[in-house]
């Protein structure tokens, strides 16, 4: 095994690095990317947003081996109350298997996050391959995925459940035209929801055979305020819902009426069903929406406490000093937050006020309203000598609906 550099040389990627990045990343994740995969990804690849680690012995030569990669996508993310923040979504994080646990990831993350701060980002986001990696960098779990399976024949609608109709079957071309606007309206409602660029939509709708897992090409359903895409696995007699987006309760009920009417299907499976989805309440037997897996989805890290906290709305009036501990980027301190349903302000203060002390990794989950302050306190990420201050933060940070990010990255 080669010796690791004492500290790696970091450089920004160029367009020519894409193939080498996919090779390093493919090794890290155990994937062989095909030429088609690489060309499909190219429109989403902004080399300026990628940092590469190399051995100083190679003098950061363009063609020297890449020992580590980190990149980011430029998302907009929705906060409780509907405001959005530009938010880099960290991605393609890999270190060569020959050079692990020698500080290359830490060097990449430090440089990348300094860049996010210099660019004025208030929050950064990621999805994690393993749960133990990112807490140390100030990230906390912000959304969760629930996989569900429904035995279609047993999932009858309760008497009186809405049956609004209005769903059409459409092809991929029409879906590409109609879905982005519905998705945009959905992102405005849901905390944690991520924007999709046109290039992202093109990629999302590609539906390459190599990614179908043995299922059919996608079928698409559309309603004025929602849509669903699914594929059928004939061997398993399963309908796999790849995406279901509804802006209104009517669209939700109408789309589910159609999905549960697919006569030749035994099981309808959804890989990411919102934790607060109301489908169970439409059915005679709510237990038919069986959760088969629950796992973390998106993680968030606050980079600018005043900017992030003043951009969201709060469920109840709150006036509190948050004492934030940030060992990774040293961006913590004491911040006074005054907020409520109509707006908020937050500023750095020297001292005073009823205070709640917390690790920065607890602030992302709180910011998007997906975790209760009381739960974080029981987990030791947040504490206060003042029970009223803790109760106030607990009540104020809850959002009207649970956060969902909606777009994998
Ligand atoms: C995860 C990965 C990027 C770590 O790279 P690395 O260069 O070995 O990490 P570092 O040596 O810089 O470690 C930084 C810190 O994270 C810890 N760490 C790194 N990987 C970890 C893991 N898988 N589980 C727990 N802790 C981990 C290290 O112990 C170190 O802790 P410390 O600095 O607080 O003492 C690398 O193992 C990898 O490429 N894995 C496969 C691909 C992958 O999962 N990528 C992440 C995608 S979300």
Automatic annotation (TrEMBL):
Domain Enhanced intracellular survival protein per the UniProt entry, residue ranges: 305-403
SUPFAM superfamilies: Acyl-CoA N-acyltransferases (Nat) (SSF55729), SCP-like (SSF55718)
Amino acids binding acetyl-CoA: 93-95, 101-106, 129-130
Pfam families (alphabetical): Acetyltransf_17, Acetyltransf_9, SCP2_2
Catalytic residues of the enzyme: 134, 409
Keyword Cell inner membrane tagged: no
Keywords: Acyltransferase, Transferase
Domain of life: Bacteria
UniProt domain Eis-like acetyltransferase: residue ranges: 192-294
Subunit structure: Homohexamer; trimer of dimers.
Family indicated by similarity: Belongs to the acetyltransferase Eis family.
Protein name stated in the entry: GNAT family N-acetyltransferase
Originating species: Pseudonocardia xinjiangensis
């Amino acid at each position: 095994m080669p010796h690791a550099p004492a500290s790696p040389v970091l450089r920004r990627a160029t367009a020519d690095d894409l193939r080498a990045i996919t090779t390093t990343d493919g090794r890290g994740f155990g994937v062989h990317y095909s030429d088609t995969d690489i060309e499909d990804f190219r429109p989403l690849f902004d080399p300026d947003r990628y940092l590469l680690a190399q051995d100083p012995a190679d003098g950061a030569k363009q063609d020297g081996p890449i020992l580590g990669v980190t990149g980011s996508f430029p998302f907009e993310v929705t906060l409780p109350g509907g405001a959005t923040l530009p938010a880099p979504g960290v991605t393609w994080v890999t270190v060569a298997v020959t050079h692990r646990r020698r500080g290359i990831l830490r060097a990449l993350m430090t440089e990348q996050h300094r860049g996010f701060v210099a660019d004025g980002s208030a929050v950064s986001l990621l999805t994690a391959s393993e749960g133990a990696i990112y807490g140390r960098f100030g990230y906390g779990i912000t959304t969760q995925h629930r996989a569900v399976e429904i035995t279609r024949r047993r999932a009858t609608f309760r008497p009186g459940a809405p049956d609004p109709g209005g769903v059409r079957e459409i092809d991929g071309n029409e879906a590409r035209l109609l879905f982005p606007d519905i998705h945009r309206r959905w992102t405005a409602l849901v905390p944690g929801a991520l924007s999709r660029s046109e290039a992202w939509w093109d990629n999302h709708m590609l539906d390459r055979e190599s990614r179908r897992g043995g299922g059919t090409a996608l079928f698409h359903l559309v309603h004025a305020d929602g849509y669903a895409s699914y594929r059928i696995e004939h061997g398993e007699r399963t309908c796999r819902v790849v995406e279901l987006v509804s802006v209104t309760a009517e669209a939700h009920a109408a789309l589910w009426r159609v999905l549960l009417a697919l006569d030749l299907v035994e099981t309808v499976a959804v890989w990411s069903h919102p934790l607060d989805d109301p489908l169970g309440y439409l059915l005679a037997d709510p237990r038919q929406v069986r959760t088969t897996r629950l796992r973390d989805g998106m993680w968030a890290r606050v980079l600018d406490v005043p900017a992030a906290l003043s951009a969201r709305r709060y469920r109840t009036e709150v006036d509190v000093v948050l004492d934030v501990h940030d060992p990774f980027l040293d961006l913590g301190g004491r911040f006074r937050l005054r907020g409520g349903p109509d707006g908020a302000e937050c500023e750095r203060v020297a001292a005073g006020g009823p205070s709640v002390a917390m690790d920065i990794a607890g602030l992302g989950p709180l910011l998007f309203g997906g975790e209760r302050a009381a739960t974080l306190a029981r987990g030791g990420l947040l504490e206060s000598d003042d029970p009223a201050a803790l109760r106030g933060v607990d009540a104020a940070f809850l959002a009207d609906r649970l956060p969902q990010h909606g777009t994998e990255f």
